[in-house]
């Protein structure tokens, strides 16, 4: 396990850097995790992160990439193929590797990546 220090608070992470307790997530945590991933968060990143957090809070499970792609397609008025391409432009090392981590999710074990 590792620890992420944010505003004087220690936040536990697993061996891959995902939060052990998603309830410890906040925007400052996301910014620090994004910095580690060498990403500068723009509004569309935040829209995706908010969708993911809302989905998790409502369903108590992490949104599969296909739900995020559907959200992006509807939000941006584009086809699903274009939305999938855009998702992976925003998170170039992958939905699980970057989006889930930055959104404060535990690491998903197995599922569709879109």
TrEMBL record:
<comment type="similarity">
    <text>Belongs to the dsrC/tusE family.</text>
</comment>
<dbReference type="GO" id="GO:0016740">
    <property type="term" value="F:transferase activity"/>
</dbReference>
<keyword id="KW-0963">Cytoplasm</keyword>
<dbReference type="GO" id="GO:0002143">
    <property type="term" value="P:tRNA wobble position uridine thiolation"/>
</dbReference>
<dbReference type="Pfam" id="PF04358">
    <property type="entry name" value="DsrC"/>
</dbReference>
<dbReference type="GO" id="GO:0097163">
    <property type="term" value="F:sulfur carrier activity"/>
</dbReference>
<keyword id="KW-0808">Transferase</keyword>
<dbReference type="GO" id="GO:0005737">
    <property type="term" value="C:cytoplasm"/>
</dbReference>
<dbReference type="InterPro" id="IPR025526">
    <property type="entry name" value="DsrC-like_dom_sf"/>
</dbReference>
<comment type="function">
    <text>Part of a sulfur-relay system.</text>
</comment>
<dbReference type="InterPro" id="IPR042072">
    <property type="entry name" value="DsrC-like_C"/>
</dbReference>
<protein>
    <recommendedName>
        <fullName>Sulfurtransferase</fullName>
        <ecNumber>2.8.1.-</ecNumber>
    </recommendedName>
</protein>
<dbReference type="InterPro" id="IPR007453">
    <property type="entry name" value="DsrC/TusE"/>
</dbReference>
<dbReference type="InterPro" id="IPR043163">
    <property type="entry name" value="DsrC-like_N"/>
</dbReference>
């Amino acid at each position: 396990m590792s620890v992420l220090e944010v505003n004087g608070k220690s936040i536990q992470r697993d061996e891959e850097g995902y939060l052990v307790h998603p309830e410890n997530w906040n925007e400052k945590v996301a910014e620090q995790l994004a910095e580690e991933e060498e990403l500068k968060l723009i509004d569309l990143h935040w829209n995706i992160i908010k969708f993911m957090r809302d989905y998790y809070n409502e369903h108590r499970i992490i949104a599969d990439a296909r739900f995020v792609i559907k959200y992006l397609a509807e939000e941006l008025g584009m086809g699903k193929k274009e939305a999938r391409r855009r998702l992976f432009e925003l998170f170039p090392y992958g939905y699980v590797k970057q989006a889930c981590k930055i959104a404060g999710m535990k690491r998903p074990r197995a599922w569709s990546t879109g």
